[in-house]
Design a protein that fits this description.
This protein has 208 residues and is an all-alpha fold. It has one domain. The chain is 71% helix and 0% strand. It has helices at residues 2-26, 48-73, 82-99, 111-137, 145-170, 181-206. The N and C termini lie close together (11 Å).
């Protein structure tokens, strides 16, 4: 059964990336450079319902994958957190985005859209910790050494991308194509999902 959980970690990133490309093509005047992915599901958008389904399904797949990772890494000598962080990322950043959409133009003027903002913020912070906690959780396990190095590299790579996203968020006016916030978000989320995909493959191959 665990192998099936790991497979979801491989499927989820591919499914989400493909869906975003398709929905972006359907939504009028949508830009992958200047619009966030959350705006695909904004209230009243032609893609709102489909985007909600995509966010929720992706989030559930990532959450189940995280559970598989958590059980696969369980150790008697220390508490592990990698799987917990993956589950938080899936639930908050993806399921949260599907259940609590932003308003038109990506604004957060209502309780629902405000929940969206804070859920995705905490989810992104959880995602930031996934690779570094994997590095910590697998100390002393030589079979994971290559993935530990990969995870450490992904963590360092995420730092400037997070800075780029923060810069775009602080300089962005909702509804205005002023800074490349869509690009910044895609680079960071793409890195997180790439780490999940590679981790899923390696867990499947490892048979943990």
């Amino acid at each position: 059964m665990r192998r099936g959980f790991y497979t979801l970690g491989v499927i989820a990133p591919v499914f989400f990336a493909s869906a975003v490309i398709i929905l972006g093509a359907i939504k009028p005047e949508y830009s992958h450079i200047y619009h966030t992915m959350s705006e695909l599901g904004e209230s009243g958008a032609v893609t709102a319902q489909a985007a909600a389904v995509v966010f929720i399904v992706t989030g559930l797949m990532i959450t189940v994958f995280g559970y598989g990772v958590q059980t696969g890494l369980r150790r008697e000598d220390r508490r592990v957190w990698t799987g917990v962080l993956i589950m938080l990322y899936g639930l908050l950043d993806f399921v949260g985005s599907g259940v609590f959409p932003v308003e038109a133009g990506g604004t957060a003027d209502t309780l629902v859209s405000t929940i969206h903002v804070y859920a995705t913020l905490v989810g992104e912070l959880a995602a930031l910790g996934m690779p570094v906690w994997f590095y910590k959780d697998t100390i002393g396990l030589p079979e994971w050494e290559k993935h530990r190095v990969f995870s450490k590299t992904m963590f360092y790579a995420s730092m400037p991308l997070m800075g780029f996203l923060v810069y775009c968020i602080t300089g962005h006016t909702p509804g205005v194509m002023d800074v490349p916030i869509g690009l910044a978000q895609r680079l960071l989320v793409g890195l997180f999902l790439f780490w999940i995909l590679v981790t899923g493959i390696r867990f499947r191959n490892h048979g943990a």
